[in-house]
Specification:
The protein is mainly alpha-helical and 258 residues long. It folds into 2 domains: 68 residues, Multidrug-efflux Transporter Regulator, Chain: A, Domain 2 (Orthogonal Bundle); 175 residues, Antibiotic binding domain of TipA-like multidrug resistance regulators (Globin-like, Orthogonal Bundle). The protein is 67% helix and 3% strand. It contains 12 helices and 3 strands; from the N terminus they run E-H-H-E-E-H-H-H-H-H-H-H-H-H-H. A 3-stranded antiparallel sheet has the order 1-3-2. Helix 3 packs across helix 4.
């Protein structure tokens, strides 16, 4: 990965949402060694180091021990691009399932509070909830991970009011982003980055810890997958591109990049 910028350990820790001590430990055990050192001896990480760290954090989220992650990354013939594509496919599948479940809960809320428009199809209540088809696969892929456990722990006790509050919060964020875009704001503006930060914190608060580095990955996902783009662009034509750019700008600002 070509990236002329080098990140000091504090910058990378802030960007990835981990501690400096964790990066020092990864260096000590040979899991993630910095590609260079400054004249003063400070660790310097480049773009390839960031991709390796992403692989490490994905492995940790999947519940793998560090020794197994290191063996995986350092094995002869390791194809980093193929690994990333496989992980992306799994994340897309998980995110789409969650999105469908939220929409199903929205249907239930609309039915309960009387706001449903037109005929109400009861089958829509179960869109995304297909245990016979997906439960075993979901548990196999994510059941042992911290992210899966945390997401399940948070959402299993959500009430209809909780889901309604979440939906309203997300709608406000998208509406504010669409308004900023319509007013001609730049994605790199303070206003747009503040909205992007609200978006990140909403995910972090309602579902799972979402570091700036992870949020940037979500921005790439939103733009790359037509299904996500369609859902976001319902709030404003071109909003996906605008929000993704604001997320990247906000991530760069969090890392101290000009």
């Amino acid at each position: 990965m070509h990236d002329a910028k080098h990140y000091q350990v504090k910058e990378l820790a802030r960007l990835a949402g981990i501690t400096v001590r964790t990066l020092h430990y990864y260096d000590e055990i040979g899991l993630l060694r910095p590609s260079a050192r400054s004249a003063a001896g400070y660790r310097l990480y480049d773009g390839d180091d960031l991709i390796r760290l992403q692989q490490i954090l994905i492995g940790r989220s999947l519940g793998l021990p560090l020794t197994e992650i290191q063996q995986f990354l350092d094995r002869p013939g390791f194809d980093r691009l193929a690994a990333l594509r496989a992980q992306r496919e799994a994340l897309v599948e998980q995110a789409l399932a969650t999105d469908r479940m939220i929409r199903a809960v929205d249907k239930a809320i609309a039915g309960l509070d009387g706001s449903a428009q037109g005929d109400f199809d009861m089958k829509e209540l179960f869109d995304g909830f297909e245990p016979a088809e997906h439960q075993a696969e979901a548990e196999r892929r994510w059941g042992a991970t911290d992210a899966y456990r945390e997401s399940s722990r948070r959402t299993r006790n959500y009430t209809p009011d909780d889901w309604k509050t979440l939906k309203a919060e997300q709608d406000r964020i998208y509406a504010d982003a669409a308004a900023a875009m319509a007013a001609g704001a730049s994605p790199e503006s303070a206003e747009a980055m503040a909205i992007a930060e609200r978006h990140r914190l909403s995910i972090d608060r309602w579902f799972y810890p979402c570091s700036p580095f992870m949020h940037r990955g979500l921005a790439d996902l939103y733009e790359a997958d037509a299904r996500f783009r369609e859902n976001i662009d319902e709030h404003g034509e071109g909003l996906t591109t605008f929000l993704a750019a604001a997320i990247r700008a906000n991530t760069d600002a969090a890392a101290g990049q000009p």
